[in-house]
Each structure stands twice: as structure tokens, then as C-alpha cells.
Amino acid sequence: MLGGYFASATSEWLIGSPVLAVIARYAPASLNALMVGAYSLTVGAGMYWGSKISGFASPVVKTGAFQSRHSETLFGVLGVAALGLVIISLLVA
């Protein structure tokens, strides 16, 4: 668990700084704070939904790897979500 937090913090440190630099450089001064807030909101929402999705993969009862079907549920949900995003993208385009 500590390794996961370390990886998350390191990735935020490596990705967050260039993103904020791009926002500061290219966003208008009047929208700078709004853009930074929107970036922080999307990072937080991504972490929240990532934890919700990963909850599908964790078994309630500890069983053998071949007896557990939680990965099938996880990939089924991710597949349906991806299909929905494809349909929305095609409708918008």
C-alpha cells in the first residue's frame, strides 16, 4: 500500500508540474485560476472513480485465483464503459 501511495505521489509530482506550467503559459490570466481548479478537480475525480472501479476487483471472500470471478466483473464494467464512451464520441463527432 505504501508503494502505491509512493507511485501516485511521484506520478503527480512528475505530471502535475508540467501541466500547471502549460496552464500558466497558455491560459489567459483571467482564466488561470479556473483552469488550475478544473485540473485539480479532474485529478480528484479520477482518483475517486479509480478507487470505485478497483473495488470491483477485490474479492469479498478470500478464495483461490481460479475460483474468483471478480476480474470478469471488472473487465465487464470497463468494457461497457468504454463502449458507452465510443458511442458518445461517435454521436458528438
Q: Notable features of this structure?
A:
mainly alpha, flat, 93 residues, 76% helix, MFS_trans_sf, transmembrane
Secondary-structure element order, N to C: HHH
Helix content: over 70%
Q: Would you report the number of β strands?
A: 0
Approximately what portion of the residues adopt beta-strand conformation?
A: under 5%
Morphology: flat
- Low-confidence sequence ranges: none
InterPro entries: MFS_trans_sf
Keywords: Membrane, Transmembrane, Transmembrane helix
Transmembrane segments: 6-24, 31-50, 73-92
How would you describe what is shown here?
- It is a single chain.
- With 93 residues, this protein is mostly helical.
- The chain has one domain.
Strand and helix map with partners:
Layout: H1 2-26, H2 32-54, H3 70-92
Keywords: Membrane, Transmembrane, Transmembrane helix
Transmembrane segments: 6-24, 31-50, 73-92
InterPro entries: MFS_trans_sf (IPR036259)
Summed up, what is this model?
The chain has helices at residues 2-26, 32-54, 70-92. The chain is mainly α and 93 residues long. The chain crosses the membrane at residues 6-24, 31-50, 73-92.
